[in-house]
Task: structure prediction
Amino acid sequence: MATLFTGIKQLLTFAGDAVPRAGEAMREIGLVKNAEVLVENGLIEAAGPRSVVSRHRLAKKARKVEVNGICLPGFVDSHTHAVFAEPRLKDFSMRAAGASYQEIKAAGGGILSSIGAVRRQSRRAMAEQLAARAAGFLACGTTTAEVKSGYGLSLESELKMLRAVREAQKLTPLEMLPTLLAAHSVPPEFSGDAAKYLAYVTAEILPKAAAEKLAVFADIFCEKGYFTPEQTTAYLKEAASLGLKPKVHSEQLSNYGGTRAGIAAGVLSADHADHVYAQDITAMREAGTIATLLPASNYYLGLTKYPPARELIAAGVPVALATDLNPGTCPCWNMQFVLSAACTHCGMTPEEAFCAATVNGAWALGIGDRVGSVVPGLQADLAFYKADDYRELCYYFGASQCSMTVKKGKIVHGGR
Result:
């Protein structure tokens, strides 16, 4: 039976070409007032003015759901580390008291604490915890999220994390796309030998994850003290040869060459981009690489420098926004806060921020042909908010205004 979502004060459709949006196109939200959305069999049948949608052949017999608010595509969170065993509360307290990264690490904190916790946790507990965490995403209007491994850093633990994502997918309607991030850091047993560890990842973890089809993407952290640009390009090319789509953490802490190293391997997106230079931006534009910005991390860490969104957009680089949910530097799953941070700290307009969190987030995962817009034929992933104007989602912050979330045409949060 079809469902008609009616009483929509403002609908953001993002109707347009099926490509990542860049430049001025990021401000074209496809706004429709007094709108309706008609859904059947998990797909959007019609979306637009009430006067038009109500005449659709399925509208009269459809189940009606009164919205009394605004509607937009479900958020597509294209960068998260949502699988982790424990929050880093000790790190948080130490940082608040003025401890440096090195002091936290020396006290057994940082990524080392997450590695130990993940290695100890059972797969079943990990899957159940991820499914519970997924409910938080859905409650904020996110309908699709990328989920990385990267806290196991051993064959057994990395595969366990990816298998837990697969298992958790059976427990939640949140669509999760898994990423192998075994090249996240060098685990203690390799004594800082990045080359030796990456060789181990390439020989053991990468082919097994690909053979089991446990991941869609492969990612690597290219930064001083982690993995070099040369290692990044070689590793991502190997991952691509095994069928995994490459992504890269780049230019987060410094300008190290990771963005262009990732581009050389054909990455879909270069993520963080805090310290990109003009030549990096030019390379991204020419390659069609999406810059995925993660301003909630900068906020949490108390940084004064934020990603240069204005420069990227002015240069014609498609920009996406994501939460970067993780236990150490961004314990946030609410994309509405990310929208606010993007507007207040990155100089993005509300229209650009919404585009970045929906349609461009979808293209950063290679799925913009089925999610991220509210147009006929696409998956009926919708988020509804108690608001009179879409800009209220960027203006108010600190709580979720989401009243109902729909995934593949089914109400999965609120609306009852």
